[in-house]
Write a structure and sequence with these properties.
The chain folds into 3 domains: 76 residues, Methane Monooxygenase Hydroxylase, Chain G, domain 1 (Up-down Bundle), CATH 1.20.58; 161 residues, Aminotransferase class 4, branched-chain amino acid transferase, N-terminal domain (D-amino Acid Aminotransferase, Chain A, domain 1); 166 residues, D-amino Acid Aminotransferase, subunit A, domain 2 (D-amino Acid Aminotransferase, Chain A, domain 2). By secondary structure, the protein is of the alpha+beta class. The chain is built from 12 helices and 19 strands. It binds pyridoxal-5'-phosphate (PLP).
Length: 436
Amino acid sequence: MAQGQATKVKKKKKSVLKRAAQSRERAEVNRANRTRVRTLMRRLRTAITAGDATAAGNLLQPTMSAIDQAIAKNVLHENTANRYKSRLTLATRVSHSRLTEALRENSEFGATFSDHMLVADWEAGSWKQPQIVPFGPISFSPALTPFHYGQAIFEGFKAHRTASSGLALFRPRDNFARLNRSAARLAMPEIPESLFLGGVAELVRLDREWIPHREGGALYIRPTYFGIDDTLLVRPANRFRLIVMTCPVGPYFSQPIRLLAEERFVRAFPGGTGDSKAAGNYAGGLLAARIAQEKGFHNVLWLDGVERRYIEESGVMNVFFVLDGKAITPPLSGTILPGVTRDSALTLLREMGTAAEERQISIDEALSAHAAGKLTEAFGAGTAAIVAPIACIQYRDRELQFSPSTASSVAAKLRSRLVAIQTGREPDTHNWLLSV
Ligand SMILES: Cc1ncc(COP(=O)(O)O)c(C=O)c1O
């Protein structure tokens, strides 16, 4: 018995010692990782200060990879990592800002650009030093890749002023992840997180005065990423450019939305690029949207590309229906864009006590539920639209009319909760904000 006890104690001691050794080993590896990032950063800064573009170019990729690895392994504190990331970008400031209060508060969505933009090129297998430069025209060969073969993708997210007088990006990592998923689908190189988030944070900090103060106002961040070869050969480009620009904006829609269910044209089909933010998806939708607008609608409501029965999404937003008190949105089947707002809405609705379901809903089901008085609300969810009530949906000769949204509507409550989190008026329990 006593011997058994002694063996047990011995075993326990051995396992404690083993765990201590493992923890020492981990600490050692973490220290080495941190030192590696610091050393690379120091060498990069020295190369930049000395104006040695070749050395800086050679050091950039390993430095970004080391930072990204350190973040993935939780070796660097987020604040330190963000500080390092923002130092990767070289900034040339404008000598005179174009900012006026009228531009900041009253600009049409997407029509006014702030003073600076972020530009980064990929060539010969690696990313070059990202630069922040004055916003302005760029010149390219008429043979440029996207002009002919559409190898171009983009993103859209926002920076808000917060209640504590700070600035915060809303879920930028999700947009970054979607940008890289779109890039993979269009045979484009992956963008390193440190380059993207570091550059965007630096850009937003620099143009922070452009963020509107009005309710619902924000700085809209628009990354665009495209091939920059000048050849007519049909193949993925060998050189790429990422540009990030920003615009002071208010909400995209100023009134409840009128939609026309589209039967003739389709936006996406299985195996296509519907779940990527490819520029071509939008080009293919412009004619249908224009025809709908000529008939007095804001946009189309896309139906599925195979049967033209199931509701998919609208031009710039995902859609939700409130049926029998439950919020329903079409599932991510590969043909609709996985909206960041859609995901936020699903989380918040459930938290607020509204059951939320991702399932197919056909236009026929919507019509009969509406006729039976069970379909009480419809709304769109997207970065630009935020949460926007739908006033009516026309399908053939039938019109689904929805009562005007009130403060107790599901859409109104969702919108106010979402905006309160984005602007720091309610706690960010999901870690959606990135302070810059
Ligand atoms: C086609 C489409 N669907 C949905 C959305 C909503 O996505 P998110 O909420 O990420 O802005 C957008 C806007 O980006 C869009 O263009």
